[in-house]
């Protein structure tokens, strides 16, 4: 039932529809935003985001509290 859902012809039609709806100027911005969202989701799932935040806070000098 779903074996031919994302055939090349379907992807071409989806690309043309997206181009007509959003226009050529908006599509690269949307693609970049989608890539950042996927990267953030992947980092959150694998736990890389928490590690990078810990490394950032560990590298900062401690604030002096008076």
Sheet having the most strands = none
- The SSE order reads HHH
Tell me the number of helical segments per DSSP (H or I, 4 or more residues long).
3
Number of strands: 0
Average residue pLDDT: 78
The best one-word shape is flat
Task: Characterise the protein shown here.
- The chain is mainly alpha-helical.
- The chain has a domain at 23-47.
- The chain is built from three helices and no strands.
- It is flat and about 55 Å long.
- The relative contact order is 0.06.
- The model has no long low-confidence stretch (mean pLDDT 78).
What is the strand and helix layout of this fold?
Elements: H1 8-22, H2 27-46, H3 48-59
Task: Considering the chains and any ligands shown, give keywords for the structure.
mainly alpha; 71% helix; single chain; 3 helices
Please summarize what this structure is.
The chain has helices at 8-22, 27-46, 48-59.
């Amino acid at each position: 039932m779903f074996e031919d859902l994302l055939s090349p012809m379907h992807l071409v039609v989806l690309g043309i529809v997206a181009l007509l709806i959003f226009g050529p100027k908006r599509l690269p911005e949307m693609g970049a935003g989608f890539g950042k969202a996927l990267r953030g989701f992947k980092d959150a799932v694998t736990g890389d985001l928490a590690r990078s935040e810990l490394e950032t806070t560990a590298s900062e000098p401690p604030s002096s509290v008076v």
